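Troubleshooting: if your tokenizer reports a length mismatch, compare against these two reference records.
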Amino acid sequence: MNTRRILYLLLVIVVGAGAALLGALGGGMVVYQAMQSEAQAKAIILTQQPSANSLPTVVVNQTQADSNARLQVSTTEIDTAITQAVEKVGPAVVTVITQLPGGRRSIFGLTQGTATASGSGVIFSADGYILTNNHVVEGGQTYSVVLADGTNLDAKLIGTDQFTDLAVLKVEGKMPAVATFGNSDVLKPGESVIAIGSPLGDFKNTVTSGVISATGRSLDSGNGYLMENMLQTDAAINQGNSGGPLVNLAGQVIGINTLIVRGGQGASTVVEGLGFSIPANTVQATATQLLKTGQLDRPLLGVQYQSINPQISRMYGLPVQYGAYVTSVTQGSPADKAGIVQDDIITMIDDVTIDDQHPYMNVLFSHAPGNTITITIARDTQTLKFKVTLEKATN
């Protein structure tokens, strides 16, 4: 009996001790986990506390971090891309010097001094072909170009096109670099671009940067037609930059700089950052044709005209607000053969109405020599239609 009681007491003691031990271990684990959680919490708090030399750190998941990383733009990378693009294209940029008539003459009949105009250009062929603006070379007697390293070379005019304001020159010798073209059709507003040229003719190979402000702009040339599908940029362009390249960050020419707008319609309006470039795809198509024939094949109708707008229409009591008033018809021309006469008003070509957004010359030049078109005429109180087969313009 005593032995059984002793064994029972020993069993109770062992079970109790085990329970106590397990409880202690369990409690210890809870305390340990709590201490670990507190330590981690303190660590997180400490990492999120701004120090004197750092900003708060925000913890995000890896997917969000990757997304944010893709959105970040490195200024250093952009600067490097601009530098590399300039290094690639810069040596192909030239200054174009045009010798103009108008120098003073001495008593011996010799010219004393000459008038000059200057612009920019870009080498686009290893054979020495150079692109520039038509208005840079217009009216010139002789031409020369100054390379980026200061070398002066005589140049020959290959061809020009007033409508696109482009011209091609040719020089002899080894070219320091040749520019390549990019696809201007894929450009979007906001893309970084670089303008390179010789503002004022003195500051050769000046580099400015900006963005594509807009695409597809139309501008009044002042010569009876709109310059269409132009690129607008805020990269600084000044007098003398005309004919120089507009370049993307890949070092490709995506436009030829042609003009700037400094003022609005009001006399006191002053604007900045309004530069315009001929898109590269237009440049390439035009240059290819100029290299073949020296000019673009433009259609000939055979009329001299005066553009009509609502103000002119009211002033002279004309029957339409827009159109091309025929002031003369060339004898034997397509217009003459079709029966178009002086004082007719051209109001439509095929199904396109002549208006401020569709000037007569733009609509005519959308057709090619040999095309047969329908000309709609306002003659007194009549509306007449004529079938005309266009010929090729000779100048």
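Reference record two:
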Amino acid sequence: MKPVAPPPEVLIKAALQMTQKQEAREQWTAQYGHVRPVIAADNWGKKFVAIRNRLAYSETWKFIPDFLLDYVPHVFGKDWWDAVVAKPEGERHQVFQWRVGCLRRLQAGVDAGGKRMATADGMTGAYLSFAFNLFAIEDNSRLDDLLLRRLKHPEQFQGALHEVFAEATCLRAGFAIEREDERDPATRHAEFTATHKNTGEQFSVEAKSKHRPGVLGQAGVAHAHEKLRLTYGRLINEAAAKNPKHPLVIFLDTNLPFRSAHRVW
């Protein structure tokens, strides 16, 4: 029996829907890179968000930033978060301080048609960028206990934070990530191997961040911007000395304020 062709209006509607889906995928890739789009749904008065193989939900989330505000405390764990809250304000973890600053900024915003409108500042940008990068790693790659422990540790946070940025950047660029076991004392390792999904080309990736007193949880008093040192050779040499098995890519965080960055050139 010969199949009956759908009516022309059905074909037109189907073609339009496919075009819209393709345009949405292209727009997401243009804005966020080759990471899986956030999968979210509204049901039973709650917003559900898929995170790799688990579901998170809340009755208060309306937009993705609402989810990201709760995401980091959930991943870090309630006991850890409560312990940070109990500390004096000046001793609290950097991520906690970012989140508090973000919340204050949002609460001071203007309500426009059910949306809280606020201009992003440094605290807001730092927290939401970190939260989305961490979410992208868990959702598109893997988030292991070793990385989480380093992120929670005040003295190890800066290096782990930059590694999160490097991993998320590679994921957005279309690479698959395979972390190397740096606990293996037999050889020196790069942070991870990045394999391009389309070409199969592999790179060894190192993430190096310049530590400065009084910045990102480091002990001491922050130096005046005109007195900051601009030497990074040791960090580059340390990365190259690991003799990686693939071409080496170094993500180097100079950790400079904007008003000092021009001195690098």
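Descriptive notes for reference record two:
- The CA atoms of residues 193 and 262 lie 32 Å apart.
- DSSP finds nine helices and nine strands in the chain.
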